[in-house]
Amino acid sequence: MQKYFFLIGYRYSCKKPIYYAKLLKGRAGMLNLPLRSIVNRENLVVSADSSLADLIKLMHLNQKGVVVVLRDEKPAGIMTERDIVEVLYNKYDLNERVEKYAIKSLVTTRGDRTVGYALNLMIENHIRRVIVIDEEEHFIGIATHQDLLKHVEEDFYRQTIKIKHILNKSRALISIAPEESLRELLKKMIDNRISAVPVVQENKPIGIISEKDILKFTSENVSLSESVEKYMSSPVETASLDSPLAEIVEVMNYENIRRVVVVDREGCAIGMVTIRDVMENLEGDYNKFLEQKLKNAKEILNLLPEMLVEVVDTGEEQLIIWANEKVVSLFGREILDKDITGFIPAEYWNRIYAALKKLNKIERIKLKKDNRIFELSGFFLKTYGKAEEGRVQLLMRDITEDIKLSTIDPLTNVYNRRFINGFMMKEIERCKRTNSHFSIVISDIDDFKTINDTFGHLSGDIALKGVSQIIAETIRNVDVVGRYGGDEFMIILPETSGDIASYVIDRIRHRIEIFDIVLQNGIAARITASFGIATFPDDGLYAEDLLVVADERLYKAKSLGKNKVACV
Predict the structure, then answer these.
(1) According to the 3-state scheme, what is the secondary structure of 302-344?
(2) 350 domain-assigned
């Protein structure tokens, strides 16, 4: 039975994880192989100070279409055949260092991850290859679509999938005539972001030129003005719409190619099927409509301001396998294939994960990360596979500004009256439970009306900002300050007696007294403030009692000549 879950209005199919679970039942041994046992290692790396020419020669030699750039034995960049096409088209100097051009974001995974997991990682992130590293992030090798496909291809023989089931008919075939130039070929490849172009004459495919062929004639210093016909690979491998996919996969592996040209009954070229098409259509029940809905949904989700993260639960780890563009733009692709605790602090994640496993969902959990506050909701979906126990879909919303609007005074950037009152109520309840004490302080700026009348309201605002900044910088991390109204501030000092509070507040009073505040039009002025202190439970057991006492003592400090602290 098809399962669904809902996230901000979009229906997500869990068909893909269920399919992998089916694969695992049939070929658990193969799909659970560690990546380190199948990766390619030879002729795949150059150092960061190597030249483009050196890299191109190596890529031509390895026949893998990719070279990894290493710095201190760790992957620092990657270049593919497509990058080389752009290098040639733009006539870059091949003697330049590769590190200037190997600037793509890297997707890496550890060598102890499984083949099944790597399949998922590639499909979810639309990549053709993944760099495999060890626990110290040193390079082990590369796994490509084709490498992984070799470990699941037997499943195709149990299916009846044909080329017509996976051919993307909405993707127009890009072809080239044999008399056209190599430069025109490069332009078509770059403009259409394709890796190969069939050479067509009278609608019949007579050859093909791929990025691999371009590497070959680059090493031979071929002029780009020469015709395509001279350098195309011929004959070209073709398939009909009714060709079984299993046979085509076998041909691709045997011939070491990554695509075949699809022809109609008259032998006319109508499309092309690549290894990526095969990878993205592994399912055997032709439920492509639902898969397309999933793909479209994720494309739409990439446009949303909310952050979306998909996590694979292996039982031992929870690994980020996909994130939308909002997440990637803020935190980088480096979070992919990493444990979720590198993204969400472990002290938060352990509670979130426990709730997900128990309730299958979480709603509006708040957490702090990198000085930002996020609200987190999500779902857990069990997938019944051996390579993974389930998937977690998380939606994160940055509510930092919302919190500020509801709790922060916009002028002084300290807490507002609503928040400070709420904090005081919680502190009273805490102290009743723990039989402890705390102090509250109410202060205001002396002669504030005179400042406004003499120098203007803008100067008054500057004075308020200056005083609030001094208080915020002087109090402890556990203390809280808020603007209580007008020129009044409230300070809450947890676990602080009246005597200690008096000492702390007198230090704040002195700092305000000696501080030169530059008012409007550059006028420097010194201002003072008065303070009244009340302590729980000595001066009252309820918020109203404490506020009355603190207010009375504030006016006592005023009556004593201002710039004073009154605690009795």
Answers:
(1) CCCCCEEEEEEECCCCEEEEEECHHHHHHHCHHHCCCEHHHCC
(2) no
